[in-house]
Amino acid sequence: MVSIIQFAFQNSLSYNEYRTQISKLISEGKSTGHEQSADLLHYSELNEVRMKRLEKTLKLDAEVEKTLQNIASKQTWLIISEGWCGDAAQILPIIKLMSDASEKIDLKIVLRDENEVLMNQFLTNGAKSIPKLLILDENLNLINHWGPRPKAAKNLILDYKAKNGIVDETAKIALQKWYLNDKGTSTMKEIVGMLQ
Asked: What is the pTM of this model?
């Protein structure tokens, strides 16, 4: 596992590099990932707007900030993501804000489709669901992992699918509204809960 993580880490991006790459691709009419489509480009464009809004409006919970500032040893937070992913657009700005609160955290991002071997180690019910946060020690050994979404958001989608048989546009809108109302609180608390 360590060698798989090390390989991915060598090809990782900082948060700003990730954001720049997505913006550049959008300007070229493309999305991240192997598959290209008008839908994926549209989602990437929506996510660009979401991330910009969240970067301006998110606030770090005081207890979360205190926990992050008390991390004793260096960690790398490695996120598996793609620019078209709605959950990633809602969650990455939160994780960035959290990582900025501690000098002990080095935040890196890798693209799912370019790191299939790594992604296959962290499937969710057999699916390549993202984002996935891997919390690593200073030697890139896995401490814990989280994702692709907070428990309440996961349950919202599972309940909708059980009732309707599919995850359609209505479910996706409901999920985005959930994220908007939650303001990152669930994500922050679940992640710091793994650090204690």
From this structure: 0.95
